Each structure stands twice: as C-alpha cells, then as structure tokens.
Amino acid sequence: MKILHTSDWHIGRRIENISLNQEFDLFVRWLIQVIEEQQIDVLIVAGDIFDTGMPSIAAQKQYYTTISRLANTQLQKIIIINGNHDSANFLLAPSIILSGLKTHISAGLPQNLEDLIITLPENNPQVVIAAVPYLRDIDIINFFQDRAESINTGKNIAAFYHQVANLVKDYKKQGLPIIVTGHLFVSDSAHNEQDHSDYTLGGLIDVRSSQLPDIFDYYALGHVHRPWKQKNKNVYYCGNPFYMALNDIKAGIAKGINIIDTQNITNITRLETPLWRQMVQFQGDFDQVSEQIKNFENTGILSPAYGFVKITDYPDNKPMDQLYEHLLSLNPDNIHIIKAIFPPKQITAKTNNQDLTALKEYSPREILQFHLDRNGYEPKIKEQLMQTFDELITIYRQNQG
Ligand SMILES: [Mn+2]
Predict the structure, then answer these.
(1) In whole angstroms, what is the distance from residue 209 CA to residue 196 CA?
(2) Does 191 or 14 have the greater pLDDT score?
(3) Rounded mean pLDDT of 298-304?
(4) Quick one: 152 and 294 in the same domain?
(5) Number of domains composing the chain
(6) Alpha carbon distance 323, 394 (integer Å)
(7) Which of 34, 49, 202, 272 could be a cystine partner for 256, CB 3.0 to 4.6 Å?
(8) What is the longest distance spanned by two Cα atoms in the chain?
(9) Are 284 and 267 members of one domain?
(10) Is the pLDDT of residue 195 over 50?
C-alpha cells in the first residue's frame, strides 16, 4: 500500500493581509495528480489543517471542497488529525458526514484509546495506522489523571505514545507495518538535560526522539514546517506544502510531501511541490531598492511575486505613501510590494500615522533608543532612562506571570 504524508496546510493563512488561497488550490490540484499517478491508497494530513481555530467561511469552503475532491480519487482513506492551530471540536463536528467521504478525523483525546487504531484494508489488513492527534495540555491532564505530575511535558507525551505502542504489539508480531501520526515537536537529544523544560518550538514542548517507542515504522508528523528526518528513529516531518513566509523561502529549502510504500518502508519518496509564488526581499536605500525592483524577473508560476522592502534611507522631502506608491508602480506585472518598511527619521508628538506603522517593526526598547539618540539626550541620562525602562519591563513581565 502507498501512503502519502502531508501536513500544515494552514488553510486561510494570509501574509500581510494577502490570502494564500490560490497557492492552496494549486497545491490541491497537484496533490490529486500525484495521488492518481502514484496510485496512493491513504492520505495522512498531520495537523494544522486550518490556520486558526475559527476559520473563515471561505477557508471552510476550501477545506470541504478539497475533501470531496480527494474522496473522488482512488484513495481508500483520508486521515486527518488536528494540530495546535486547529480547534479539535471544530474538526470533529462534521466527522460523521466526512466518514461518508472516506475521511477519518482524529482530534482530541478519544473515548477509548483503541479508537485511534485504523487497519487498512479493514477485511485484510496490510497496514496499521495509529492516528494520534495533537495532544493539548488538557488531553494530557485528562489522560494521566492518576499521575502526580499530570502536566504536558515531553515525557508525558512520549508516555502516551508508549501506551499506543502497546495496542499495536500483536499487529507488529504479525509483521504488519505500523505508522503513527502526531502533531508535536520532536528533537534530537543534542541539547542539555537541564534546559529541557524550556525548549519549545511554536509553543510546543520538546519531545526527545530517544523517549519515543521504536515499534513504529514511520512517524508521520506535523508542526515543523521544514522537512526533517531524525537520524536514529523513523521520525519524519514532511513540512508544509508551499511557502507561507518570506523567511521560509529565503532558507532555500524546497517544499513537498512524503510517500511511504509499505512493501519497502525504509525507502521514503520525497516529491517537491513546484514554486507557485515567488517571494523576495529588497534592501538598501530608496534608489537602490527602486533599481532592484525594476530589474526583478518573476520565476514563480503565479504572478506577480510578492516583495518585501526594507529601506535604509530615503529622500526627506516626499511623504512615505508617495514613495511607496512609486515602488508599487515600478514593475507591477512581476512584483507586488506587500510590505515596505521605512525607518522613522524622527519621532515626535507630530509623527504621522505612516511613520507609526513603521514603528511596529521595532521593539519598544529600540524605539526608546531611537528617540533618545535623535533628541540629543546626555549619554548619562540616556543610560539611566534605558535602565529604568528595563526595570519597568522586568516588573511588568513578572506581574504577567
Ligand atoms: Mn503548522
């Protein structure tokens, strides 16, 4: 059997208030083509289906349309788990209807742990899939009620996986390949033991790969947006299927999906998705950036590409919105500037709204520094004011708990 592993669709995601729905539609079209060409039997979506727990009507429509299109392929089963961005209850609400569209939703803690175990095909199992959802703090607390230490630590998450491992032992003895899902943050155990409780990614606590059970032939995980394979364990992140942030594209790591063939489970096929939308950063003074924009050629499938501008210096005599309009007009077919940062030249009570928008790019501390530097404060006074500021912030943070 062939299983396709994808995750982190983040339907409804926007960058700088621009929707990524075109990118998602192109991905789904590509995915269906892959499912047909590669004769995929099972699709696993490992969490973060939506970008938020309360998705827009448009995002919901895109989700249900996608499921119905996927159900029309030769797939036997679509397995969807929740991620930390999803509302488990929102995903579960239509699960009875979706079961008629070959779709199994696993979100939140089930009534019975055995409900997580799916064998396929049902009458003559060739593969076992343990559809472990994202484990929220509340799930871990409810599950380990009898433990003194019933909190969401990496250890407890690993302990949950060991309980699931117990349920599939007999299948393993029969020689069936066993796949488990998850939306969690697994790391190599390279970092220091003492730091463990502090080590998190995207709000999720670190689970050491060494703590996880060995029984599973493939961990189909979501949460980390870049593809990754743990060295000593069959832990796989397929990453999200297309670029959702400028930093992501700057890192130069291609997006894609993983295919598992149960006949040869150690040999994972990676398929890269095409570059649908190019994103690029322009940096320098106003004239340099203008030149870069003029010369830019779009290499993505969708046009225009999205541009992010960081201006270091610009003419004093023109209002910022005029400068921004000018950048927009330089090469509109190839590039749409979706964000432009002009550092404020001076901050006074008369600073206008456009300048203040740019301030969002700086930390409160940097803004104070700016202000003190540009308004001729004595170095000693400056130092005292910065110190007072830091103390205030410390007290504020302590009160926040
Ligand atoms: Mn995610």
Answers:
(1) 13
(2) 14
(3) 93
(4) no
(5) 3
(6) 39
(7) 272
(8) 81
(9) no
(10) no
Tell how far the Cα of 89 is from the centroid of ligand 1, in angstroms.
18
Count of Cβ atoms closer than 10 Å to residue 247 Cβ = 12
Contact criterion met (CB below 8 Å) for 210 and 226: no
CA of 22 to the centre of ligand 1 (A): 19
Residue 354 lies inside a defined structural domain of this protein: no
Cα 154 from Cα 159, distance rounded (Å)? 9
DSSP state of 108: S
Domain assignment present for 352: no
Looking at the fold, whether 391 and 260 belong to one and the same domain comes out as no
Q: Both 141 and 19 in a single domain?
A: yes
Mark which of 272, 299, 322 sits at the end of a domain.
Answer: 272
In a domain, 236, yes or no: yes
Among 65, 87, 70, residue whose Cα is nearest residue 35: 70
Give the whole-angstrom CA distance, residue 333 versus residue 77: 42
DSSP bridge partners of 5: 44, 258
* Percent of the chain topping pLDDT 90: 64
Residue 134 CA to ligand 1 centre (angstroms): 11
CA-closest candidate to residue 125, choices 48, 73, 179:
179
On whether both 184 and 127 belong to a single domain, the answer is yes
353 lies in some domain: no
| 198 and 306 housed in the same domain | no
**Interhelix angle 320-329/286-294, nearest 10 degrees:** 20
User: What is each CA distance from 195 to 148, 324, 387, in whole angstroms?
Assistant: 22, 45, 28
CATH number of the structural domain spanning residue 224 = 3.60.21.10
**Region of 258 on the Ramachandran plot (φ > 0 left; ψ -120 to 50 alpha; else beta):** beta
pLDDT higher at 31 or 205: 31
Q: Best-predicted range by mean pLDDT among 91-105, 145-159, 175-189, 201-215? A: 91-105
Residue 98, pLDDT above cutoff 80 = yes
Together in a domain, 296 and 267: no
**Residue 372 CA to ligand 1 centre (angstroms):** 40
Please give the distance, rounded to the nearest whole angstrom, from the Cα atom of residue 201 to the centre of ligand 1. Answer: 11
In eight-state DSSP terms, residue 225 is S
Question: CATH number, domain at 325?
Answer: 3.30.160.720
pTM: 0.83
Distance between terminal CA atoms of the chain? 50
Question: How many angstroms does the Cα of residue 308 sit away from the middle of ligand 1?
Answer: 22
Question: 81 Cβ partners below 8 Å, 6+ apart?
Answer: 45, 46, 47, 105, 106, 107, 131, 132, 133, 134, 181, 182, 183, 222
Residue 321 Cα to ligand 1 middle (Å): 34
